Every structure is written in structure tokens, then in C-alpha cells.
Amino acid sequence: MKSRFARYLPILTWGRHYDRSALTNDLVAAVIVTIMLIPQSLAYALLAGLPPEAGIYASIAPILLYAVFGTSRALAVGPVAVISLLTASAIGQVAEQGTAGYAVAALTLAGLSGGFLLLLGVFRLGFLANFLSHPVIAGFITASGILIATSQLKHILGIEAGGHTLIEMVGALLSHLGQINPATVIIGVTATAFLFWVRKGLKPLLRKMGAGPLLADIATKAGPVAAVVATTLAVWAFDLAEHGVSIVGEVPQALPPLTLPGFAPDLMRQLAIPAILISIIGFVESISVAQTLAAKKRQRIDPNQELIGLGAANLGAAFTGGYPVTGGFARSVVNFDAGAETPAAGAFTAVGLAIAAVALTPLVYYLPNATLAATIVVAVLSLVDFSILRKTWSYSRADFIAVAATILLTLMLGVEIGVACGVILSIALHLYKTSRPHVAEVGLVPGTNHFRNINRHDVQTDPEILTLRVDESLYFVNARFLEDLLQDRVVDGDALRHVILMCSAVNEIDYSALESLEAINHRLTDLGVGLHLTEVKGPVMDRLKTTHLLDHLNGRVFLSQYDAWKALAKPADPAKAAE
Amino acid sequence: MKSRFARYLPILTWGRHYDRSALTNDLVAAVIVTIMLIPQSLAYALLAGLPPEAGIYASIAPILLYAVFGTSRALAVGPVAVISLLTASAIGQVAEQGTAGYAVAALTLAGLSGGFLLLLGVFRLGFLANFLSHPVIAGFITASGILIATSQLKHILGIEAGGHTLIEMVGALLSHLGQINPATVIIGVTATAFLFWVRKGLKPLLRKMGAGPLLADIATKAGPVAAVVATTLAVWAFDLAEHGVSIVGEVPQALPPLTLPGFAPDLMRQLAIPAILISIIGFVESISVAQTLAAKKRQRIDPNQELIGLGAANLGAAFTGGYPVTGGFARSVVNFDAGAETPAAGAFTAVGLAIAAVALTPLVYYLPNATLAATIVVAVLSLVDFSILRKTWSYSRADFIAVAATILLTLMLGVEIGVACGVILSIALHLYKTSRPHVAEVGLVPGTNHFRNINRHDVQTDPEILTLRVDESLYFVNARFLEDLLQDRVVDGDALRHVILMCSAVNEIDYSALESLEAINHRLTDLGVGLHLTEVKGPVMDRLKTTHLLDHLNGRVFLSQYDAWKALAKPADPAKAAE
User: Which domains does chain A have, with CATH numbers?
Assistant: First the structure.
């Protein structure tokens, strides 16, 4: 009973051993993460099309709930770039940005997503996330990065423009180019250039000047804070808001409010598919980060409990004015590097952000949106990585096709269609590959009891025996392939007396393949050719024993291929044997 | 050039060697098949909801075209029960039975199906048919048999009733029970009982009376002809048509007409999915029969050329007043058993049916529809075979679920949804199975160089070494499974120094799995644990060599598991070694 509680409430495990040293480490990490999160939260809210405070609210209750239910010690939960983009795309289809309906849709999306994650966790269905292959994720992230950066150009240029696909966005930008606001452009471009320099040039410079690695790292991470402070001061000092620079403006000075997501069936139906997509993509991002960090300290992540943790976090976001959240890569790595030892660091971060929400929001009144857009652009461009195209091209054409299709479709048709097509395509390509498995004709390596591909090795064969090693499980998609192949081979070979299927790589024989083997056995029997099986694996053999195949088999089942060879092959040509 | 012609026109191959003996055999087979086909063609047209002559027309041009393009020597092409049902279900959704639109829809369906089959053949996409697993086919055929038999009850009872699902049909039958026509019931029930007896009791009786097996067989197959003759005479003699017995009535005395399928885009769009379904199901039925018969004579079937043959046959049906056709089981077996040697037998059958269409149609004027329905019911009930449920239950739960779902959904929701759900479900179940592969921890069988599952065998292990044999290809669906598994195992094992992955059953490592292996290697490196690979297959190794995994691997790649053991294991405990 106690252990079940502990499984569903990881806080009971780490909370019991919490001590002063952990407290100190967690507090230090929390301060660093809080400073980093303030501009980031505002920026991601902008990306999602929501008021700036939504980004901060989405970082408070979710972090606290994850600290109770999550299994990762260092994961930092909150808004992230890709999920913010998906949120904007999903709720943009059901409500107009800036309306009350838009904010309610964001809450509803978070609620649905939280509920779905909880369900997956309780029913232990975390493996569903595996259907997102790495190439599809990589392609999706790269394409999303481009879409996000493009979507922020309007803030940097100070124009109004919409669109959810690359073509729509670029078209909208071009047609509004006339409205460019010079002051905004100066701020936006300067901030972008500065942030790029901080990311690429500052750290080496500091190290060269003798700064320690940790200090250099923190200074780099503080870049966005510096940009925020400098541009806010500039707008205030030069009264740039009067010159058309769009600013954050009034942000309520309050703790996260209690909010209710919408329960209208129509709204829930429209948001259901996006919520599932957001849940799974968020889970994949989060679990990868959590596992990487946990492995460094030999800690354990329970993927199904993680679903529960993320589900609770998203439900928390739904009821406290937030929007969908997940474990973010950048914030978690900072948290880990800054020394966070337990989820309490997250709780302290939440407290820090709550203080910011109450006390510091007046300070961002003059913060220009162009600066926030600049931080987004610089952050997401680091996600864009076309090297996956080259890597998959040289490794596997199927994976390349999946990446390329995901990137193209995401850019052309939007994030949801892009990722859905990527998943379907990678499943189809996998099935296609297994539908025509590698089948090697093998022969005996002279002087050994090993059998190798006759095309790769100099091996001994017997014209009366055809030995095929099938390098794939036999199941319905390739069952007929083997029938066709054997029919072709047997029609050709008049001298043939025995067919041996070497099953060392056959991990499963499903019912369709079983019937195919029965058909093959039947046809070979008609032709007076024996069918033999060798090296059948334990679990496969256990199953075959429950059927009639082995009774009807016109040949035998041998434990090893060499046994079959000894029993069936004619004595080798004496001239050859003497070699 | 010549050989390419020969590939696409198999008639050039067999036609060149055609001689008098083949001619005699083909003629005899054609006469027997023609007699069997006349009532069958009328009955299947009734099942499809088309006028009786459509069934005969669908057996003339298609047979001739298949004879030119098909690769099977004995396949007989024409209307079959399941395809007739699918036709009725598809065109019933776009037109009212008995209208001109209904007949045009049937032609269009045949045309679309023919075009699709041709495309698949030309692009050599025959493997797509493999996605229909044997359990799904078996479940679908059984459920279709029940649906077909139920759909014919109205003809046997002499009432009007509709419906496409079992519940609809039974409901319609029950609500019209009051309209039962006594004369029709007498004819229908008598004919059904007689045909059942012919099928079950006549052959043993004849054999007991000393008849040869061939004669007994032909007499059995002639049962439907006898029923047709007897009931037609009865209707004529007792003027039963005046007493409400529904009869075939006037059938045009003519050769197949030239017809045009409909080309309205709306109609084609509505029929596209059913046409694809009909094509694939028809192809699967046809190729199974063709391969079984060809194997008996060491003949070769080219699946892609078969698609072209069936495509041509269906296009022929579309332009000569027919409806979708395929290679039928019953008619092909009769053709083969009667001694057909070449597709010319089919051509002669076509001539026989053409003569029947011109000369014999007045004779079926008084043929009661109840008799035709009886022949259908008796024929399709032999398709109903629930033993597949028992067989798959004992062999594999996944296959059982696929069968059971296909049967239930086909009965409840109709043929199209049933088979589509069956296909999707069997793919999902396959992916689910491979998502959690069998992984065995193995140890050395003392005194040998074999490694076996530590849970099944008494083997030698080393606390510093964890050897896992993964019995599945590594690909995106199970990539994270291995990561999770290793994380769990490594966190537990403090003494652990080496992890060995034995890859003898790993037939593929896709890009996702490659990245997982890199992540595993990275995490194990952090923990000071070595990662080693053994028994990697040739094609998998070729691919890994193009990547950086092998450079970064913190352990080694060994050719055999025994090599790895010799290199990494501590000398065995002397006490144990002495045993």
C-alpha cells in the first residue's frame, strides 16, 4: 500500500530525505532559473498569441504539481516554443486572437491535454509516444523552428501579418512590408543581433578573459535579461511607444487566477485532436530531457509516472490561467547545471515567478514586443538543424524520406498535418521494408559448422538442397513474399529435393505466416520436395507446437542448421573434401 | 523486346505450343464449367441486385481477356459471391436498385476496379494485397457468408426487405414476415434442402453405389442445374408465377452489349474507395486460387501480371454490361479438375456462355428467384467457418482479436467498414507486439560456446556483465523500450561493468534506434559501464559502419558472443570450474 502511494507520489520518496544541503543547492538553482524564465515566459505567451501574464501563470502551478507527481529531479516544466506554436495553431482555428474565447480555448486545450496525459499514464500507455520516430521529430522540430522564427518577423518589423504555413506567413509579411515601423525595426534587429552575439561570441570571449565556465555560462543565459532591460529602458527614455513601437503594456499585478476551461462539447471536439498531438509531442520532448538528465546521476525515470506528472501540470495550467506546458530542454538543463537536486528547486522557482507576477510586472510595461520576438527567434533558430537530412540520407533512405516529407509538409501545410503525415509515412515505410525481407541463400563454410550467404562467402552447397535464411519475422505483410519466392525457386530447380528454412532471425511467426508455411509445405509435398526448419527460436517453437504444422511437415525440424546439413547433404565430393 | 512482350502477353508463351491433346482437354473442361456457370451467373447477378443477364455477360468478355493477359492456366474469372455482395453494398449507396443508374454504377465500379488493378500491376505494387492478413480475410469471408445468406432469405420467403448490416437485414425480414408467399417458401425451402443434401449426402451415396469419383463429383456439381430445371418446370406447370412466385422473367436473347461506364466525377469519387477494396479483395482471392492450382503442376504465377490480367478482365466487364469480377475458387477448381490445360479452356467457356446467352435465355423465363437464392445460400454457407476463431485463439491472441473484430464489425457495420477496420487493427497489433520485444538475458552454457536465456537454462553468468539478446529488429517503435529497459537494469546493478547487446536476431537498426544506441552509449559512458555489440548481421553492420556510433562506442564490437565473453568475463570461480 505504502509502495503504491510512493509510486504515484514520488515526492514521498525524495521528500523524506530532504536536508539543508539539498535546500541550499535547490535555492541557488531556483534563483538562476527564475531570472531566465521571466523574459522566456513572456515571449512564449506572445508566440502562443496570449497575453504576457499567461506565460508566467503557466510556469507556476504546473511546476508545483510536477514537483509532487513527476519522477525527474531536474525537469523544469512550463511553456516551450514548439508547444506554444502548436497552441497558437490549434486555438487560432476556433477563436479570434485577443478575444476572451481565445484565452478560454487555450485553457481548454491545456485541460484536454492534461486529461489525455493522465489517462495515458494511468493506463500505462506511454509507449504510444514511440510512434513518433526520431527522424519525424527532428524534421518536425526543424520545420517548427523555421515557422516560429518566421512568425516572429512581424513583431521585429512592427507590422501586422498572419498565417499558419510558411507560404501564408511570407505572403502576409511581403504584402504588409509598406507598414514597417522604423523604431521597431531598430530595436528588433539590434536585439536579435545582440542575442546572436551573446549566444555565439560572448562565452568564448569571457573564457578568453579568464572567467570560469559556470560564470561564462550564466552570463550567456542572462543575455535575454540584458536585452529586455536595455530595450525597455530605451522605449521608456525615448518615448518610443508614441512612435509606434508595440509594447507589452499593462500586465495584471496578481497571483495566477483561478480559471475554468471551457466544457462546450463543440469546442472540446474541435480541440481534441490538437490536444492529443500536443500531449504526445510534449511528452516526447519532456521524457527525452528527463532521461538524459537522470542518466547522469543514475536516477530512474518512470515514463508512465511522467505522463501523470505532465498531466497534472497541464490540468494545473488549465485552472490557473495558463496554456499547455511540458518539460523544456533549455530550462531543465539550466536547472540541472545550476545544481538543482530535487523537484523542490522547481517549487522555489514557482515561488520566484509568483513574486515576479505580483511585484515586477509594472517593470515590463515598456518592454517592446520586438525584443521578446528577438529572444524567440534566436532561441528557435538553434532548433533548426538540416544536418538530419544528410545523416539520414547516408544511413537509410526510408528515414530520409520520413524527415524530408515531415519538413516539407510541416512548412507547406502546417504543424498538425505535417507531423501526422510524418507518423503515417514512417509506419508505412517500415511495413514496406519488412514486406520484402532480406533472404540469403546460405551454404556451409568448409571446415566449420557455420553457414553463410553464398553470395558473400566461398561456401559448400548441394544441388539437392536449397537453404534460405530469412532475416525477418514472418507475418502477414511478408507471408506471401516467402510463398512467391519459394515458388520461383522451386520451379527452377529440377534437381531440388530439400528446402531448408533457417529461422535464426525469425522472431515471430503469426497466424498468416503459419498458414503460408502450411501452403508451402502442401505445395512442396505435391512436388516431392521436403520442407525442413532449423534453428527455430524457443518462443516461436513453443507456439508452433500448438499447431498441426509440425505433424503435417513433410520434412523435419532440426535444432541447428549443421544437424540438418549432416542429415540431408550427400557426402561432399571427395576431391573437394581433400582440399 | 520479344521477352517483354511475352511477359505482358502470356498467351504468346502457351499459345505457341498449343496442340490437339490440349484442345481436347480444354474443350471437355469448358463444357463442364459452362453448365455449372449458367445458374451460378444468374444467381450472383441476383445477389448484386442486377438483372440476371449481367451475371452471364460478366463471365464472357472477362474470361477472354484474362485468357490473353493472365498467367494462371486454370483460373476461371467471373462473378463471385463476396465481390457480388461488395458490389451490391457499394452501388446501393449511390443508386436505387432496378434503375438505369444502378446498372451504370456497376459498370463504373468494374471500370474503376479494372483501372486500379492495371495500375497496381504496371507499377508492380501487388505486395499491397499483403496488408490483408489471413485472419482478416478469414473473418471477412465468414462474416460475408452470413450476410449473403441472410440477404437471400427474402427471396426464399418471397418478401421484400433491404439492409446492408445483419441487424438491418434481420429487422427488415422480421417486420415483413406477414407478407410471406407460401408457394415461394415451398420452392425455396425444398431447393435449399435438396442442394444441401446434394452437397453433403449425394457424393457418398453415389460412391457407395459404385460410381467413380469423377462422375460423383460432376453429379454433385450438377445439383444446382437439376434444381433449376425442376423448379422452372414446376413454376411453368402449376402456373406459380400467378400465385406470387417471383421469377427471372424475360432475359434479352443477345450477345453481351457494348456499354459505357459512367464518367461523372461525383460518381467516380463515391465509388473510388469501394473499387479499391473490391480490387484488393478480389486479387487476394484470385491469387490464392491461382497459386494453389499452379503449384500442383510446377507452373509459375506472376502476381503483378495477374493484376494486369484481372484489370483487363474488369475493364472488359465494364464495357460489356457486366460488373466486377475475379478468379473464383469453385469455378477454377472445377475447371482444373475437369482437365483444363490452358487458358483456352476459359475462352471455350466464354463461347459456351455466349451461346447460352443467345439461345438458352428463354428457357429460364419461369426460373424462380427462390431457387437462385437457394443456390447462393448453400454455396456461401460453405464459406462460413468459425473454426478460425478457435485456431487463432490457441495460436495467437493478436490474430484472434483481428479475426473477432473483423467478423463483428463486418456483421454490425457492413462489409467495407469491417474489412478496413480489420486491416488497421492487424497493423496496429503487429506494431504493438514489436513495440515490446522479447529480450532475454543470456549466459554461457557451461562446456560449450552457446549462450542461452538465464531463465530457461542453467548457465554461467558474471555479476559484472549483463548480456541481453534482443529478439526483434530495433526501430522507432521499440527504440525507447531498449533505453528504458537498460536504464532500469543499470540503475539496479552497482557491480555492473559491461553491457553486451547480442544482435543475432536484430535484422534492422533504423535511424531512431541508432540514435537510441548513441544515447545508451552516452549514458553508460557517464556511469563507467562499457557497451559492447556482438553477432551483428552483415547488412546491419554495413550500415553502422557509415555512422559515428562505432567510433564513439565505449566498448567493442565482437564477431561472436563467445569472443566477447572470453575477453570480458573474469576467469570462472575455480570451485565452479572444477565441477
Answer: 2-404 (no CATH), 439-578 (3.30.750.24)
